[in-house]
Design brief:
A six-stranded mixed beta sheet has the order 6-7-8-3-9-10, sandwiched between helices. The protein has a four-stranded antiparallel beta sheet with strand order 2-1-4-5, covered by helices on one side. It is an alpha/beta fold. Helix 4 packs across helix 11 and helix 7 packs antiparallel against helix 9. The protein binds adenosine-5'-diphosphate and magnesium ion. The site of magnesium ion has 5 residues, from helix 12.
Length: 551
């Protein structure tokens, strides 16, 4: 960077007065070498900064995705897309702006050279630097608040846009589009206006800074000429200091221009930092254990979500390996919450849920997952083939294991009727697969890999008659295979085949015992003794009986 001004200085002062062609050649050679090094170093710096960007992508991006998934599993709204946007901001600042900021300290070298040529010009340059720094500070204050408000609004509008796309069917059929757009604009519009105002202010500060810099350059040249006329400096010194002052002030001016990108990156950095700081508190267990037999024991389990009343208020029960349990109760009784506690998804506030004596929450997830199957109340599938989905997205899964799981779930024939069978892409079928069909594939996913313990949360909510028969078949096969399982149900139709029943009401166990014993409690004397699935009476009366506390 010093090559050009030093070259001008030497050529004007030495070559022109001495008429020496050798000096000119020698100077050109030295300066040429310097410029080649400059080019190589600046390429090296850019490439290093780009590599830092790539490193962020492979080191941090997976952690951020993990953070978003973990927090979502605990019921917090964390957008994986927002995490990646934040990472993108930081990356683009590192590869686009950081290099320029690194030039700022080198301005001192230029300043020193100017000072050596003429202390007066050096002093003038210092004044210029101070003025530009002042503009930088003004820029920070003028735009910081506005930038924050803008990105906060953007965040909210993105969340709304996400949820609206997920509920597209409701939006379209009920003509909610106008309302949704209006709602979205309530966040998006001010965000856009703030962004515009911020940009306008930054633009003004930048333009003034540019004028200041140009004036200074002219002033240095003018004063340089005056000094040269009085023989205080040489003509070469005058030209060189004019170039040098531009070089010395340019990084400051560019830093002001880059300020917006710096602010966004800083904000993204803070968001990701606090996300990752809370992520470490959520780290789950590391326990790795051999294959369990399938004994489940729940001891005095209490669960209180953060800043809310307890949902599970002291649940205790036990089932042995190979046994099956039906958990029934009215909606909002806490059945799904209890299921998540049993599966080690939520941290118990008190007590424990154990599989073969080991607390499920403390179990390493990957290790635990090999031995269990879980079908959440809301089943959605991943982008990929039906085979990938059943194989829990293990892309190297052997086909026979996949087919075995599908046959256990009673969904093999249904899959064969899909356009490409097991190779059907779920994305193309998203709208033609009914929720019931999705649920049945979810059941096959739960049964993949011969788990020892399986929990199904309301597996029959979306099933038709055929689907329900397939489900009952699946439960029978699970029993034969010796799998311990828990079926959660709102209505008692599918509990006909479980060994034990637990009636959950408002977070406490109302009844727990062998199936027939528990069901008898809820049957008006002598009216109905047969299996409830046959439905001679009204099977749906049970939770209502539980609700009304008839027993
Ligand atoms: N993270 C949470 N924070 C606060 N309340 C919750 C949370 N999760 C569930 N609940 C509440 O706990 C109750 C039980 O929910 P849930 O376990 O889904 O019941 P069920 O599956 O029996 O219908 C509901 O009233 C629900 O609103
Ligand atoms: Mg539920």
């Amino acid at each position: 960077m010093l090559a050009l001004p030093l070259y001008s200085l030497q050529v004007l002062d030495r070559v022109l007065s001495s008429h020496s062609i050798e000096t000119l050649l020698m100077l050109t050679l030295i300066i040429g070498t310097g410029i080649i090094f400059y080019g190589m170093f600046s390429a090296l710096r850019t490439s290093l900064l780009n590599q830092v960007g790539h490193w962020l992508d492979y080191a941090l991006a997976p952690k951020l995705l993990e953070d978003a998934i973990t927090k979502s599993s605990l019921g917090q709204y964390v957008s994986a897309a927002q995490h990646q946007r934040d990472l993108g901001q930081i990356k683009s600042f590192i590869s686009g702006g950081l290099g320029t900021l690194m030039d700022v300290p080198w301005s001192m070298v230029f300043l020193l050279v100017i000072y050596l040529i003429s202390p007066a010009l050096g002093f003038l340059t210092v004044v210029g630097m101070v003025v530009l720094i002042a503009f930088g500070v003004i820029n920070e204050y003028a735009t910081k608040k506005i930038t924050e408000q803008s990105s906060e609004g953007m965040l909210k509008s993105n969340i709304l846009a996400d949820t609206a796309s997920r509920n597209a069917e409701a939006v379209e059929t009920m003509g909610m589009m106008g309302n949704i757009i209006a709602h979205w604009q309530r966040f998006q519009k001010p965000a856009g206006e703030y962004a515009e105002r911020g940009a306008a202010r930054a633009n003004m500060v930048q333009s003034i800074a540019k004028i200041v810099r140009l004036f200074l350059q002219i002033a240095v040249t003018g004063i340089g000429a005056w000094l040269a006329l009085h023989n205080e400096i040489t003509v070469g010194g005058m030209i060189a200091s004019s170039i040098l002052v531009g070089r010395a002030l340019a990084p400051f001016e560019q830093a002001i221009a880059l300020w917006k990108s710096f602010l966004s990156a800083r904000e993204s950095y803070h968001r990701l930092n606090s996300a990752l700081a809370t992520a470490t508190q959520l780290e789950r267990g590391t326990l790795e254990l051999p294959e369990p037999e399938g004994h489940i024991s729940v001891e005095n389990l209490i669960y209180t979500p953060p800043k809310a009343a307890p949902i599970i208020k002291g649940v205790t029960f036990r089932i042995s390996a190979g046994e099956s349990l039906g958990i029934i109760g009215p909606s909002a009784a806490g059945k799904s919450t209890l299921s998540k506690l049993i599966m080690g998804l939520l941290p118990p506030s008190h007590g424990a849920a154990r599989l073969d004596g080991a607390e499920t929450f403390k179990w390493n997830r990957a290790n635990f997952g090999k031995y269990v199957g879980y079908m959440p109340q809301q089943v959605d599938l991943f982008s990929g083939t039906i085979k990938d989905n059943i194989a829990r997205m293990d892309l190297d899964a052997p086909m026979d294991k996949v087919i075995h799981a599908a046959q256990m779930a009673g969904v093999h024939d249904m899959i064969l009727r899909l356009p490409n069978g097991y190779e059907t892409q779920y994305d193309q079928m998203r709208y033609s697969l009914s929720p019931g069909q999705r649920q049945r594939i979810g059941l096959a996913r739960a049964l993949y890999g011969n788990p020892k313990f399986v929990l199904l949360d309301e597996p029959n909510t979306n099933l038709d008659g055929d689907g329900e028969r397939a489900l009952l078949g699946a439960l029978t096969r699970m029993k034969q295979a010796g799998i311990t399982f828990i079926v959660v149900a709102h209505r008692p139709t599918i509990v006909s085949m479980v060994d034990k029943i637990l009636v959950l009401k408002a977070g406490t166990v109302e009844r727990f015992g062998p199936r027939d014993e528990v069901l008898r409690m809820y049957t008006p004397a002598g009216v109905r003794q047969s299996a409830p699935a046959q439905g001679s009476g009204d099977p749906s009366s049970l939770p209502h009986a539980a609700e009304g506390g008839i027993a």
